[in-house]
Amino acid sequence: MNFLACFVLICFFTVPLVEGRVRHYKWEAKYEFKSPDCYKKLAITVNGKTPGPSIVAQQGDTIIVELKNSLLTENVAIHWHGIRQIGTPWFDGTEGVTQCPILPGDTFVYKFIVDRPGTYLYHAHYGMQREAGLYGSIRVSLPEGESEPFSYDYDRSIILTDWYHASTYEQVAGLSSIPFVWVGEPQSILIQGKGRFNCSTPGIQAGLCNATNPECTPYSLTVIHQKTYRLRIGSLTVLSALSFEIEGHNMTVVEADGHYVEPFVVKNLFIYSGETYSILITADQDPSRNYWASAKIVSRNSNTTNGLAIFNYYPNHPRRYPPTVPPPGPRWNDTEPRLAQSIAIKSRQGYIHPPPQTSDREIVMLNTQNRINGNVRWSINNVSHNLPYTPYLIALKYNLTHAFDPSPPPDGYDFANYDIYSVAKNVNATTSTGIYRNKLNTTVDIILQNANTIIPNNSETHPWHLHGHDFWVLGYGKGKFDITKDPKNYNLVNPIMKNTVPVHPYGWTALRFRADNPGVWAFHCHIESHFFTGMGVIFEEGIEKLGSLPKSIMGCGDT
Amino acid sequence: MNFLACFVLICFFTVPLVEGRVRHYKWEAKYEFKSPDCYKKLAITVNGKTPGPSIVAQQGDTIIVELKNSLLTENVAIHWHGIRQIGTPWFDGTEGVTQCPILPGDTFVYKFIVDRPGTYLYHAHYGMQREAGLYGSIRVSLPEGESEPFSYDYDRSIILTDWYHASTYEQVAGLSSIPFVWVGEPQSILIQGKGRFNCSTPGIQAGLCNATNPECTPYSLTVIHQKTYRLRIGSLTVLSALSFEIEGHNMTVVEADGHYVEPFVVKNLFIYSGETYSILITADQDPSRNYWASAKIVSRNSNTTNGLAIFNYYPNHPRRYPPTVPPPGPRWNDTEPRLAQSIAIKSRQGYIHPPPQTSDREIVMLNTQNRINGNVRWSINNVSHNLPYTPYLIALKYNLTHAFDPSPPPDGYDFANYDIYSVAKNVNATTSTGIYRNKLNTTVDIILQNANTIIPNNSETHPWHLHGHDFWVLGYGKGKFDITKDPKNYNLVNPIMKNTVPVHPYGWTALRFRADNPGVWAFHCHIESHFFTGMGVIFEEGIEKLGSLPKSIMGCGDT
User: Fold this and answer.
1) Shortest Cα distance from A53 to chain B (angstroms)?
2) Same domain flag for B222 and B371
3) Alpha-carbon distance A444 to A436, whole Å?
């Protein structure tokens, strides 16, 4: 009893206050029929839900997730998006990079520290399972006694996604087959897991769509008049760039990917897959009615209906439709306001992490769409990335040569002769499993260079996400990046730090990061089908600093 | 050069004649869109085909199948159905019993000897993947110079299956969910991978069904007038018992599951999932036209259209429809002719393997349908079997206790008080991973006792398949097996040996086998959803005689 009392005391005084609490979650991933947009399909749920349970923690807490795979014949892995995994690179959850997939029946224990406050996400990182519904939110608050540089009355989280009726398997079969079958536009946009597909659409199989299913009741965010809400918005779309707005209400952007933003006001927030934002919104409009929250696809000419939710002023009924037509949202092909928002996001005064003023290495990454052996693929500097079956982390640590291509991908492309405004003369590319290796504690610049796709007069938006690090966003530009002139205009004063950033059509985005986190890290376009068809690279740094790897991440390929 | 010449000579003279040839196959399992019955769905193919490539070998040959798993996120395992795997129990291909599942990207090498001539099958044995299309045929011929006790001009193989439009995942989700969702009747019957679904069926999603797709052209078996054909027929139905016939032609049954049958003539052949038969058929009818081959569902009141193929008399066009209405087939609920056929199958004179006249152990297995925690399950003696995630073979060999339930399932049921003709008073049952352990080289009798399901006045047909052994079929009976009287009527003179046998509605089937093959072996109902919901048991014998297990079968559960 004395021992027990002592243990309790230790837990209470030592662990919570000094080292952070331990937050223990028991999760089960499973296939279940769900109708998030009224159309019944199999989804991967966590504990019966999609989105899955939220992780709510405090800075410095240790998160333990015991994940049981109950998918029967399919493996799984979960990535903790935005968590840098300092000291735990093996728990990043990226199949093929940091771990073997988790087998059916197995329980894998993820254990990591949430070392920064902010808004983060989690999602499957294996095949294209994310789009099957395995995702959720992570909210990390400041330690007791510390406060944010802005005030609000309530804190709420929502995740935006797009939703397909075809299964992951069907989509993958199309993307891998000859002729190539593109996944197409999503069937609906989900706001916090709720959307609405038109069940009267011709050609729908009988019995699958039910407009009165309570599962597809629009998400309703209840607010009290004159109160201010911190709304944490994350996007985990499969494909779509979105514009999010709440009818008649301005939004003040205060956080991006866990970093404080010098506040600015927008009517609509552009958000790309993998990004998170906190906005402040005051319920300062006529409280006798509800208002539409709307998510519209931009950057693609999509026929998908806007996603709708209800911004509900208490005590109006939360499901009472607003009396107005939902806002139409911005034009899909107007790049200017999107670029303007990207540029507007700066680090907040007093919370600036100054970037290194110079870098040790500069990699220019030309983003192109290509044809390889009859398939459509995406490439970086004409190399389309394939994931190996032996995770890089294990292969590098234990010198499992042959696990991947030893030659690194190129640091640039034919700057002088490549016309980013035209379809490439030669749309072929090669595939590789090769990686970029960086010296530990060096500074690396990445310039993402967009270009024309294989369709004339078309360039897409790609949201790039870096694992294991936040990077500084040094600048955005239009056209071809000039390696001599453009770096002179880099923002080295108050650049925002992020983990996901868009490269706009025909434009470039410049990033800088410190290669200071020993491990192996993916950097990829967060569009599910783009990463699947080659749009990613791998960075390694300081592998020699790592102790022995947990056995639980092994069991596949050469391991 | 001398060494090479010597090696070639050894191969030529020693291996082929004395030890059998090595037959080396390289297979890739993959998801691809197929329209075997005109309806497009994802199927698991082997080298692009479903049914997959046939294995054609000679008695004593060594089969090597290098199976590459290209299913992206899903594992796989293939069972060699009817091959006893003497000395290679680890290559039986039964996930959870003899091996861990094969991970995506991995290549697993199966290596085994086909030690008996005859007609066998292969199929996935993991989750419910068999029904996704991963199956094919194995034909083992006699050694050169030996001949069968019957003659024919040509040798042909066909496999019968039933086919669902819902994915394996959708079916499994229904079977595992509360409320329980039954998979229902199949959408079509496939003869050698070809069937025909009515694309005009109301409620079908637009664009998925195309009646003019050449993939669903009926299978056509071309024959020459007055020639005799050995037709090897296997059934790998998911659910259905079938009656197969060729309009206007008698069939002489000569082989069952690799054993010669005392010939008998039938108009239609009843065949259950997991069985194979060779029939002789002479093309002795009017050669100016084609004839229908037809497969009809029996034992269930199914609305599934009969499967049709064309028995094509050369030189008529192979796709020319016969001028007649296809034969309707027997009544679905007439058990008598099915029982009569079962009883008619005896071992051929001169080829009888005499059974042991007594047995060392007798296990009566009551087959019941039950409810467990709100789900519908199947049980043996009120125990519904669950597969563990650590394969039994590995757990037993390396004493991995906790891998499965240590208590064995019961050897019988409450004979005196159980009414097999009624729904059980208590339909509950328990689940277990426990197994039956037999002493090596003992003789075991199994009596499969059928009963009423949870629906009044309903008893189904269950085809039971034993891995690693052939058993003698000692008898069939109606009603409740009498442990005192019925064994006196066992056929101990010329019982057929088989690996799969039906137990008819409200009837019993008695088997005897020698527990002489060290390893761990599944014995289960071959209906995919029945095994999945508990209708199986596991036998172990002589595990102590096995040397070390191949590493390739490990990597899951506690291994």
Assistant:
1) 20
2) no
3) 11
